[in-house]
User: What shape does this take?
Amino acid sequence: MRTPLVIGNWKMHGTLGEARALATAIRDGLKRPRGVEVVLCPPFTALAAVAESLGTGPIQLGAQTCHHEAAGAHTGEVSPAMLADLGCRWVLLGHSERRREIGEPDGLINQKVKAALEHRLTPVLCVGETAEERRQGLTFTTVEGQLRAGLAGLAAAAIARSVLAYEPVWAIGTGVNATPGQAAEVHGYLRGLLSELASKEVAQQIRILYGGSVKADNADVLVAEPEIDGALVGAASLGAPGFIAIVKKAARVGAAPKE
Ligand code: PGA
Assistant: This one.
């Protein structure tokens, strides 16, 4: 049984004051989350403040990306060692906004995944097709290429310490989420690939999150799918009541095993 996981990706939002207020409201609204793991990924500038607001409670801290080296002459970058030092235990990698806006290629994302694992951070490897790729029937080809490249050279034990997020690009920030059936189909495909890349056992234990316009009113039907192990939430993670509602829905599914 895979414990549902809900990650809030705040993207480039929030002053220090706003970040503290949001983290505190989420912490207070989720004092003892049962049957669900919760991670907040604020911008780098707010990591320390959010770490302080979360304290030693159950909500964990993550970052939105990292460099692939521990230190060095890389102006403007943040290393996985620095994130671990701040109390981060998670890092999003290969998010489509970074692939598109920064031009992060699969090979670099692979180096980042390895660096994250070396520093005991759990990488959340994001994959997903564009609307055009889906229209051309290239959904599986696209996510397969991203998954194989992202996990290239990793031993089964390292793959087992990772999380995947399927985020169709056409669903991110658009208000148009994938249907539970569309998402489940891709998740099943990814899990099949994980069996091949690692082992059947590892594939069964890895969590595959869905992301793309998840909100309180669609989270339950998505997370109820046996193949969907939680959500990576963007816009709807910027308001405490909506995010808490999503977590509670995922927790209910976690409390009543699907399989
Ligand atoms: P969204 O973003 O929930 O705003 O669609 C999800 C993501 O990009 O992780």
